[in-house]
Amino acid sequence: MFFKNNKKIELKIDKIIEKIEKSKLEDLATIMGNKRQIIIRNFLAGVFKGIGIGIGITIITAILVLILRQLVSLNIPVIGEYISDIVEIVEKSK
Fold it and tell me: Whole-model pTM?
């Protein structure tokens, strides 16, 4: 009886080991344990996020300015004045 339970336990342990190897938990534990790699990875992630935000805001602002210029060229009486002021302010800040 003891040997049957022993084999069941061994099979369960083998399954657990196999799942751990598939999940690469050991690699994750190694990376999490190395503070230098964590700092470098987080620093690079922050730099690239900042660059992405800067590029994204620039593109969105350029698109908005183009749309506003088109609205000004339509000569809508009330809206045109406000939009032309906004476009002038944006162009002066360049």
Answer: 0.49
